[in-house]
Specification:
Elements lengths: L16 H41 L2 H13 L2
Length: about 70
């Protein structure tokens, strides 16, 4: 007579938990990169506007004088 022994194996599988974390991390990186790029564009635009204003006012002193006159209403 033959005896057979049955064994049970427990296999633990997790599906999707790690992939959700990595996708979320990648999306966060893209969002942060987009915000940083937009901030850089705004910074470059502000420098261009200040340079243009300084050129039209005749220099930094003329720009400061014009700004003071505009703010004070003189």
């Amino acid at each position: 007579m033959q005896e057979t022994v049955g064994t049970k194996q427990k296999v633990k599988t997790t599906v999707g938990q790690d992939s959700k974390t990595s996708v979320s991390t990648e999306v966060d990186k893209i969002v942060i990169g987009s915000i940083a790029a937009f901030a850089g564009v705004v910074g470059l635009w502000s420098i261009a506007c200040l340079a243009s204003a300084m050129f039209q006012a005749g220099g930094p002193l003329g720009l400061a004088t014009g700004w003071f006159k505009a703010v004070s209403g003189m």
